[in-house]
Amino acid sequence: MPKKQIIQISTDILMTGALLLLMSYGLLGEAAHEWVGMGVFALFILHHVLNRRWLRNLTRGRYTPYRVLQTGLVLLVLFTMLGAMISGILLSRTVFRWMHIRGLSSVARTAHMLCSYWGFVFVSLHLGFHWSAMSAAVRSRLKKKPSPTLSRVSRLLGLLFAGYGLVAFFRRDIGNYMLLRYHFVFFDFDEPLVLFLFDYLAVLFLFAALGYALCSATLKMQKNKKTGGHRTMSTLFINASPNKDGNTARLAKELLSGKSFETLNLIDCKIYAYGQHFADDQMEEVLAKIRQADTVVMGSPLYWHNICGLMRNFLDRCYGSVEEGAFSGKELYFVLQGGAPEKWQLEACEFTMSRFAALYGFTYKGMVTNLAEARKAC
Fold first, then answer.
1. Claim to verify: residue 239 and residue 341 sit in the same structural domain
2. How far apart are CA 371 and CA 375, in angstroms?
3. Which of 226, 257, 283 is the last residue in one of the domains?
4. Can you give the pTM of this predicted structure?
5. Are 238 and 266 in contact (CB under 8 A)?
6. Pick from 172, 200, 226: which residue ends a domain?
7. Which residue range is the domain that position 268 belongs to?
8. What is the per-residue pLDDT across 328-378, written as a single tens digit (0 to 9) for each?
């Protein structure tokens, strides 16, 4: 796993854990609360530095309903986090006591409560929007596909935990704090911290599940709008080999034996490099084909120890042109053809494709490198 991705995942996990700790203000202690808040502030900045390419692409591309919803949610997270941080500085008695700010405590306390509880909900919804990408990343790291029984049990446990989160939401009066029906947060100081955190974790999971449901519904609505509500199962093979009828195509045909499919050869398409803009660029035409398909098979020969240039260029161009999770509900297979590739080469290629699938919402079905694997895959 690349170092940058490890840092991104670690940052997000630490920030989520620290956010849960911040909600336990009365049990954690005022000084600890402020220092944890400083940690969240540092992680918040690091998170945006690591995702600066997403920020640069805000003014590029088309705004679909999904992208509008996702961007609006990110802005709400930003505003509430900044509001909580600024009001926290005004209320500080430990970290920023040297500033000697007076006369704003009443307004700052109200703002801090509003931003903290609404921010907690918005962050949870935001996590739900990235649920497909996170789960796909986990699946890609597993050595074998989870059994159907395990998947059903996991869904049932998730549903039960979300249900408990709904109970905890009302029992902890979170809705009342969000609506400022109470102006102070009440804590049971005899309660173990771990029980408090468990309840808030369940509430976070509840809103993450709601965010995932909202994300899925929006993407489905977009898809139905494009297809006029008519659903036809289709398979698209994207061939990145310059040899249209070579070994990559033969391996894909074996994978899709007995199925009808459409072939799109990237060698026939004008897809310019990332950052180039020409009127005859055909990237959008390729993306339109993917949007219409239910199953996508991407094939590449092994060149210079990795996927070929045509495929790499196509993957690069997806960045900024396609919103995260846009291909949710579609399956992706990867066909890699090479002469006796080494293990590290296979791992590098599959890591790239599994991360591509995770980012854009594909259900990654795995990599096929020979005829035996092709016959087993479908």
1. yes
2. 6
3. 226
4. 0.67
5. yes
6. 226
7. 235-377
8. 888 999 999 888 788 888 888 988 999 899 888 888 888 999 888 888 776
